[in-house]
Design a protein that fits this description.
Number of strands: 18
Shape: elongated
Number of helices: 15
Radius of gyration: 45 Å
Strand content: 5-15%
Distance between the termini: 48 Å
CATH topology of one domain: Helix Hairpins
CATH class of one domain: Mainly Alpha
Structural class: alpha+beta
Largest sheet: 6 strands, antiparallel
Strand order of the largest sheet: 2-1-4-5-6-7
Helix content: 40-55%
Length: 670
């Protein structure tokens, strides 16, 4: 088997509102590390989701920046791109049978998002993945010991449990659904499937071969019908369509150059137009200034008139005061009788009871206001004169502006319009060229679909042959479950040995639960979180390593989120002295253990490379110790720092900090 056999992640692309965000993957070790809340875990969650995960938890940076996601993968050397809506997990999934760069030239196949929604006519994404990986499609018994047990279809997600340790699973006492009897039972059946030791393996393979042979026959019939139709309609072949698209692109480049040249000639040949345009701008500026002057004059007239009215009212009040003084200010000697007791009363010196201004003061005030009134009348007259001048000048300017516009229109007709007509003709030709290109691309998609069917037939034929070989091997030498568990225990023991834990003994696999055993203690009974971390990672790595010697039904992929969990880096409970004591007792808080763990994973990848087999291990953690960082140089695919130090990206969504806070609410998905 060569290094192209199996599943290989190539690129994760998040298609965003502002731009696209890309994470590349490579064979062997892939390391993602950096500060918390920078999107590291989201990368693995997105990979899981795009390979059939039921739901996905995403940070606000992603939900407000991304529309959908695409995962480019290679399976057995063939390229595929899986595109999926990240906001609606129930929508169908698009799968393109091509590389990422060829998506626009290919029609996607539609697959149901979950196994429960799929059927013979509408396959699920899980069905597609199992088929192209050449894994048999089987049904698993819910209660293996009962012949009458109900069965459930095996899905790709059932296999994913043995490929992906998320943050909650690493070192967890509930890893692989421990404590859930139904799921534990199913997982044991899945593990048997992975190693081809199901009781029904031979019969299931025979059914699978029969089914795929039927599918192959149907595809051949479909391919023949399509090919006949395309030939009868003289449909262009792929080579001719590629050539046509290339020629169209060359013509587009030439037409765009013509437009650029035309724009330059327009600029150099329209000097008079530019002069007229500049004159028009000058006139418009003068009109704006005169309008300001006119409005200012109107405001002055209004203000002065209002003040004049107030002064005139004051004059009338002063004149009334002078008249009142003549009457009220005199001393009138007079006697009269009291209206109550008829006593005689003398009325005199009445003016002493009132504060009456002197005639001189009132007359001076009257003179002053009268003088100011005359001044205001003069100002009003002057402003009215200025208003008349402004109106006359504005009339002349508007007349001049209209003449300038007429001259510009005449100039456009005589000098610029021909250029515009020529440019319109080129733009129209470009639109026709784009339409031709669109039709050619559509035709190319049709041809690519035809080619894809042919490729499917070839893959099915190869898949059937491989299944027949596997069936013959199973019939001749069916593997023993005990032997499988023994070999798995040996690989686990070698991994634990490489990590160099204290008291290294009693390592193997429990024959009943299929869980790892260390120091003669089954996994769920191990108290140390740090030791569970090493064992959980070692267990999945050992299952992966079996591909070095066996033909297992599991892709050569392993993803681990937070490798250093409980290893003196991220304690399970910082306030738990008991856990700290246990970790110290096992020595797992020693940074050397963390380094050894990384080296054991790197060693596994190197073994695959030495045996010319495909393996891909993706590791995520917050930080890498200095003694480890030096050794993994060149293995990092993403390194994030929230403060952007040393020019590093601030996160998976590396332009989130540049988005204005006020605009973030506007980009939230509906």
């Amino acid at each position: 088997m060569n290094t192209s056999q199996g599943l290989l992640l190539k690129n994760l692309v998040l298609h965003g509102h502002r731009k696209d965000y890309r994470v590349p993957f490579y064979p062997g070790i892939n390391i993602i590390y950096g500060d918390a809340d920078t999107g590291k875990s989201s990368i693995l969650r997105l990979v899981y989701y795009l390979l059939g995960g039921k739901e996905i938890k995403l940070d606000k940076e992603i939900t407000s920046s991304v529309k959908y996601a695409t995962l480019e993968i290679h399976i057995n050397g063939h390229p595929y791109c899986i595109s999926r809506d990240i906001f609606n997990a129930s929508k169908d999934v698009d799968v393109y049978f091509c590389e990422l760069s060829k998506i626009s030239e290919t029609f996607p196949e539609k697959y149901k998002s979950s196994v429960s929604k799929g059927d013979d006519q509408n396959k699920s994404l899980s069905d597609f993945l199992l088929e192209v990986l050449e894994f048999p499609s089987v049904r698993l018994k819910q209660a293996p010991t009962k012949d009458s047990s109900e069965t459930a279809r095996l899905s790709f997600l059932d296999l994913f449990k043995f490929m992906y340790l998320d943050q909650d699973d690493v070192g967890s006492a509930n890893m692989l659904d421990i404590g859930n009897y139904v799921l534990e039972t199913k997982n044991r059946e899945v593990l048997k499937y992975i190693f081809n030791v199901l009781d029904s393996s031979i019969s299931e393979l025979e059914v699978e071969i029969s089914k795929k042979t039927h599918d192959k026959t149907q595809l051949i019939t479909q391919y023949t019908a399509i090919t006949t139709f395309l030939n009868q309609t003289e449909f262009k072949d792929t080579e001719a369509l590629d050539e046509e698209i290339n020629n169209i692109d060359l013509i587009k480049i030439e037409l765009k150059e013509q437009i650029s040249d035309l724009n330059k000639r327009m600029t150099s040949d329209n000097a008079l137009y530019e002069g007229l345009k500049e004159a028009l701008n000058t006139i418009s500026l003068k009109i704006e200034q005169q309008e300001d002057t006119k409005n200012s004059t109107l405001r002055n007239i209004e203000r002065f008139t209002r003040l004049l009215n107030e002064y005139q009212n004051d004059i009338e009040r002063i004149k009334a005061g002078l008249s009142a003084k003549e009457i009220i200010g005199r001393d009138i000697p007079e006697q009269t009788n009291c209206p109550i007791c008829e006593t005689s009363i003398e009325i005199q010196n009445l003016s002493e009871k009132f504060d009456i201004p002197s005639d001189t003061r009132l007359k001076n005030e009257l003179t002053s206001i009268t003088r100011r009134t005359k001044d205001l009348k003069q100002l009003i007259s002057e402003n009215r004169s200025d208003l008349e001048k402004a109106n006359n000048l504005l009339s002349a300017l508007y007349l001049e502006k209209n003449k300038a516009r007429e001259m510009i229109d005449d100039e456009l007709k005589s000098s610029i319009s021909p250029y515009l007509a020529e440019r319109d003709a080129i733009i129209s030709e470009l639109a026709q060229i784009d339409e031709r290109r669109g039709k050619a691309v559509h035709s190319l998609r049709v041809r690519n679909t035809q080619t894809g069917i042919a490729d499917q037939i070839g893959r099915l034929a190869g898949n059937i042959e491989n299944l027949k070989i596997k069936l013959d091997e199973l019939k001749k030498n069916s593997p023993s479950l005990d032997d499988v568990m023994k070999d798995l225990g040996i690989d686990l023991n070698n991994f634990i040995k490489d990590v160099k834990i204290k008291n290294h003994y009693g390592v193997g696999i429990d024959n009943k639960t299929f869980f790892p055993v260390v120091r003669d203690t089954e996994y769920r009974k191990i108290n140390s979180g740090g030791l569970r971390t090493i064992v959980s990672i070692g267990y999945l790595t050992s299952i992966l390593s079996q591909k070095l010697r066996k033909d297992t039904n599991l892709p050569g992929l392993l993803m681990v989120d937070t490798v250093g969990k409980f290893l003196g880096k991220t304690p399970e409970n910082p306030e738990s002295d008991q856990l700290a004591t246990l970790n110290d007792a096992d020595g797992v808080a020693d940074p050397e253990k963390y380094k050894n763990l990384f080296e054991a994973l790197i060693k596994t990848a190197e073994k695959f490379d030495e045996n010319n087999k495909l393996c891909q291990i993706i590791l995520v953690d917050n930080d890498i110790p200095q003694n480890v960082a030096f050794e993994i140089q060149g293995l990092e695919i993403a390194h994030y720092r929230s403060n952007g130090v040393n020019g590093l990206p601030t996160g998976l969504i590396d332009d989130w900090d540049s988005v204005d806070t006020n605009n973030r609410s506007q980009t939230q998905p509906e």
